[in-house]
Recover the amino acids of this structure.
């Protein structure tokens, strides 16, 4: 008896150890297969195509010609600048509006449960549908915003917000903020509710004002969530396609053309696959560098605020 | 006590909340207003908030202007549901592996999955087009479902993993000691215990799939009959004279079924989603 048990135990441990690895990879393999076929392989293929002059007709290897042409084009650098400006402005606004919204929804007032539900619609409908609504509101002839501006005497004539360069760009920003705000608000709200009540009570006993408590307790406590929402929003905003495409298709005269829109136009609309692929690779590299830098920053913030 | 607001503060919070919600709900209010007015009046008359000519005519005419509207609504829900079902089937085992098992390259491969979040389909469209063509999936539902699944897998794994980690290990160990196989334990012990989490993650995946079906639809599919709602309606927005009141009526009608379901699920969803994400 004893002999069998002693002999069997190590063997069983051994078998278990082996099968755990294999079992784990077996469980992951379907997900991995999807990612390999739909993301990794296309990514490798994009990199390869970026060194060719591929069109519908065929392809030849052209070395770094696509990149050379791209980097020599001042328009491209304008687009890069515009994309980062678009991302920085939209993300900051989303975070600020989200923070204000979450604070309001967190206030102890009757009706807050209803208000929390009313924030969600932009998040749960197809993005494109909401944007079609905005496209209507921006139009100059009978749109709501032009109508209101005239009503209040701010402008004399009808304003077609999507027709001039500056107003089109900021209109697209407003719509992007509208699409992104509900989710940011809800995550901030949840984080605020997770802050320990003891902290507030201690500060309250010491006579700290509401604003002081917000600045010195709420903000530091939810900082990890703010920072991670900032990264997610930044990536989504950088990659956002539908909003600009439906509102302006990148116009007027390129005023709302971000890298994603530019890539889509070159690669899909004009079917210059090689040049489009080079742009896609630039996007991937920029995002990767940005994310790594950001994760490093996130790590520091988390350590600073003592969160895990 | 500490949370109590003075009357002035309360009024201030209500006013601020009103403006915040006005910003969020404005497009919906405006879409409803437009959908209730005759097109001729919208185009000619000066902007007014209220008018005498409200009617439901657009809700009748839209079925003629957009003959496939019913199909579009169905397609949207069908595509999003299929994406959700396939994503969950793929994500559950993977999330379990990351939550419970120990294996080489665990952290690295999880990081790899999460890095996928950096990409959108827009960057990979050209080769993706070729992949789908060689799989014979262009202009079928699959052209919208398969890429949708791939881009939702990382988030699904991430969210579900943090749920599974909260389930006590003891039950699984008990089943294992009783001689149950690993797969049996996953199917009969873990999944039933994780059902609330599965609902939350499933709803989140559905929202993701429902919200983002425009790009793949306009790029990989040109069969009208299987186009989802946003892509179907977008086609009409491109026309020279858009019957905006009917478009708005169609858009509102199209999102209603999902909105109703969502109203019932919102309580779980928000609590669960944010709990899963904030804890990490």
């Amino acid at each position: 008896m004893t002999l069998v048990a002693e002999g069997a135990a190590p063997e069983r441990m051994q078998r278990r150890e082996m099968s755990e690895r294999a079992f784990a990879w077996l469980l992951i393999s379907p997900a991995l297969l999807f990612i390999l076929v739909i993301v990794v392989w296309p990514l490798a293929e994009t990199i390869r195509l970026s060194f060719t002059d591929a069109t519908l007709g065929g392809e030849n290897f052209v070395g770094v010609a696509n990149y050379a042409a791209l980097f020599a084009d001042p328009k491209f650098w304008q687009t890069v600048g515009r994309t980062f400006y678009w991302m920085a402005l939209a993300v900051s606004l989303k975070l600020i509006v989200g923070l204000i919204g979450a604070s309001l929804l967190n206030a102890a007032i009757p009706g807050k449960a209803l208000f929390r539900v009313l924030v969600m619609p932009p998040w749960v409908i197809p993005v494109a549908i909401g944007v079609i609504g905005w496209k209507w509101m921006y139009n100059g002839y009978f749109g709501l915003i032009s109508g209101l501006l005239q009503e209040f005497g701010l402008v004399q004539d009808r304003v077609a917000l999507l027709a001039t360069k500056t107003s089109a760009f900021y209109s697209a920003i407003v719509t992007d903020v509208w699409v992104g705000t509900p989710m940011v608000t809800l995550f901030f709200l949840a984080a605020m509710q997770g802050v320990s009540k003891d902290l507030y009570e201690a500060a309250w006993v010491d006579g700290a004002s509401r604003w002081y408590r917000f600045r010195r307790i709420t903000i530091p406590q939810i900082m990890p969530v703010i920072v991670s929402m900032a990264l997610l929003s930044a990536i989504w905003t950088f990659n956002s396609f539908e909003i600009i495409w439906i509102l302006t298709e990148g116009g007027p005269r390129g005023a709302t053309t971000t890298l994603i829109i530019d890539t889509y136009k070159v690669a899909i609309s004009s079917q210059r696959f090689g040049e489009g692929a080079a742009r896609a690779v630039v996007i991937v590299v920029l995002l990767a560098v940005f994310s790594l830098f950001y994760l490093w920053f996130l790590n520091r913030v988390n350590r600073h605020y003592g969160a895990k | 006590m500490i949370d109590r607001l003075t009357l002035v503060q309360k009024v201030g919070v209500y006013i601020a909340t009103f403006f915040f919600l006005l910003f969020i709900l404005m497009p919906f209010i405006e879409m409803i207003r437009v959908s209730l007015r005759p097109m001729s009046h919208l185009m000619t008359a000066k902007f007014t908030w209220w008018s005498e000519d409200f009617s439901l005519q657009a809700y009748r005419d839209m079925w003629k202007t957009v003959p496939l509207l019913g199909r579009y609504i169905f397609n949207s829900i069908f595509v999003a549901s299929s994406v959700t079902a396939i994503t969950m089937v793929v994500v559950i085992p993977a999330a379990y592996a990351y939550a419970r098992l120990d294996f080489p390259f665990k952290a690295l491969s999880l990081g790899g999955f999460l890095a996928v979040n950096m990409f959108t389909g827009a960057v990979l469209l050209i080769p993706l087009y070729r992949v789908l063509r060689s799989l014979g999936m262009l202009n079928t539902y699959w052209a919208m479902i398969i890429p949708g699944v791939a881009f939702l897998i990382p988030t699904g794994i991430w969210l579900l993993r943090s749920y599974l980690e909260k389930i006590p290990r003891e039950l699984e160990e008990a089943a294992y000691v009783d001689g149950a196989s690993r797969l049996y334990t996953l199917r009969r012990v873990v999944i039933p215990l994780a059902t609330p989490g599965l609902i939350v993650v499933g709803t989140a995946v559905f929202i993701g799939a429902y919200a983002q079906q425009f790009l793949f639809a306009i790029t990989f599919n040109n069969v009208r009959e299987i186009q989802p709602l946003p892509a179907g309606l977008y086609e009409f927005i491109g026309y020279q004279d858009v019957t905006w009141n009917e478009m708005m009526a169609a858009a509102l009608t199209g999102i209603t079924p999902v909105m109703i379901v969502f109203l019932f699920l919102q309580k779980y969803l928000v609590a669960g989603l944010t709990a899963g994400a904030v804890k990490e």
